[in-house]
Amino acid sequence: MNYLKKVVLVSFCAFFSVSLMAQTHPSLMLTKANVAAVRKGVATYPLLRQSYQTVKNAADKALAEPIVVPVPKDGGGGYTHEQHKKNYSNMLSAATAYQISGEKKYADYVKNVLLNYASQYEKWPLHPKRKSEDDGGRIFWQSLNDFVWQIYTIQAYDLVYDGLPAADRKTIEEKLFVPILKFFTEDRYEVFNKIHNHGTWNLAAVGITGYVLNKKEYVETAIKGSNKDGKTGYLAQIDQLFSPDGYYMEGPYYQRYALLPFVLFAKAINNYEPSRKIFEYRDKLLSKAIQTSLQTSYTDKTFFPINDAIKDKTYESIELVYGVDLAYADIKPEVDLLDIAKQQNRVIVSDAGLKVAADLAAGKAVPFKYQTLFIKDGAKGEDGGLGILRSGPNTDQQTVLVKAASQGMGHGHFDRLGLLFYDNTTEIFPDYGAARFLNIDTKNGGGYLPENNTYAKQTVAHNALVVDQTSHFDAKVGPADKTSPSLLYFSNQPNLKVVSAKEAKAYADVTMVRTSALVKVDGLEKPLLIDVMQAQATKKHQYDLPFWYKGQLVNTSFPVKAKADGLSALGTKNGYQHLWLNASNKLEDKSGLVGLLNKNRFYTTHFVSDNPLEVKLISIGANDPEMNLVDGKAFMLSSSGQNQTFASITETHGGTDPINETVSSALPSISELKIVKSDAQQTVISFKLNGKTYTYQINYTDKQNYISFK
After folding, report:
1. Which of 322, 433, 454, 489 could form a disulfide with 309 if both were Cys (CB 3.0 to 4.6 A apart)?
2. CA-based torsion, 266, 269, 271, 276: positive or negative
3. Sign of CA dihedral 419, 420, 424, 427
4. Which residues are catalytic, by number?
5. What is d(CA 646, CA 539) in angstroms, rounded to the nearest whole number?
6. Which distant-in-sequence residues (6+ apart) come within 8 Å of 300 by Cβ?
């Protein structure tokens, strides 16, 4: 056989394979070839059985209720919004129950819901509550929700396809799915080609629907963009939104959200066209993205809430259930992923869920390997990143995060070199997250609150340095998107874990360097968090470094005389207008300490400044007429000068037993924290512990000996 014949035959076989696969249903998460095995697995493996029972219960509940497909009217969280969400969830549950039980009533339910939508969809105008003409959906107030609806619904249709009469399939496809494809690709052309999570959901919905309906032109458009030139589309989204480490530029919360369309479309591509080797693309980038999503969480399952994030979101969310199942079953069976699946306490009733449940039942799980690492940001890995330091077992782990990443587009916050600190499965120095009550209609329709811009995004809302009471980049996204911090040093030694990064563009004439470390010292059960924030400038400024904290204030080195009434705001803009000034103290020796009690454990932060120091005790809540802001407290280190260094050591010690009414090691062990020297070349600090003097030195210009501790 000559070369040309081989090429023609291979091309024909590939096309024939796609055409043939398109006629085989189900063909997405659960495939026809594995239905029997999954049915057997439901009867055999506890987690798969439990997961299926949850799905079947939801399906049975749906069948017992009347089908309601209301004319779209309400915004996020409103009745029609929630009903349409409920409908796609019910359809997928019923469709899954049909495949496992074989009972026709479940397929009939999905058919009847879809026929109801098909009878109305083309009559619906753009949603009356749409945010704008070019972003509104037909079913929901924003087109994003329409895309999500379709991704879930097409899975349900694929599962019941063979259980529906041909005439009904024709009606559903011609009156519902084809108009939806047209709306997504033509009416929402700009969104379809946008490099953004909204674009990802759109093109994934189009691509998966194209496979199921055997409309290859839509598949190609989804993969390569409307012009099929690869400048937009699915592959371009992977190329531009993820770093080589698998970090998604909008942050962990949106990485979690965006993962579902990425992995579902990848699964469809792999099933229909395995020759594309989509799971190998960009050095298995989707696998890295799933792992990175998990690495950007704490051991309490919550994601690091940087940027616009709802703080109680965990990796138990459906997106990561899909992601973990597919990562384990379709990409690489890393056994520590089974630990996550076990904590998620469910699997997708699918080919991948079967493998995960079987290996869990076989006892293959090991604790998830949380790592100390620097996760690079940017398509080429050149836009800073996240420094994550960890110490201790998953059951009681200290974790430090330094945010030295890119802005993250419109969902980014202005918190260059911001710090988060966790211990004892809880937040110690938290991030505020987003000012939003998701889908709670009484709170701004469930969307972002005005305070998201006036407070949550502002620098003072974070554990980050504020200069002249002005946010980084003057809180403007455009300039912030053009530049990123840079990593100066990273170390993962057993007793000295360090990340140091520089931000030189947030302010016109100020260069900031933050160096944070977890340092193990003989005689202490827990490492010390040593944090040095240095600012170099060409003129004098006011510098504020807040430490937002969780827990109760139980100890200070200075008298606290909080105002009993007549509170005033700390400032008038840039987030300061939302802060109450409760107390302030000027410290003559430029040093002090604040002690906290959090979850029955003590945390004492010792701090020192190289310029005259004032400590302000502040809380959230000023100028908040609708009571939108969430409570929070901080101690703020404030100083004025040309150059500024704030050094702090947070010591973890002792605790309380409220049952037995005992207290241990309530007082800190560290004393005499001093800045010995701080300039552009070095910062040297010293402190005493158990009679011994320790020296911690940062050598900013010496990469080989950047950190010295002795």
Report:
1. 433
2. negative
3. positive
4. 254, 411
5. 18
6. 314, 422, 425, 426
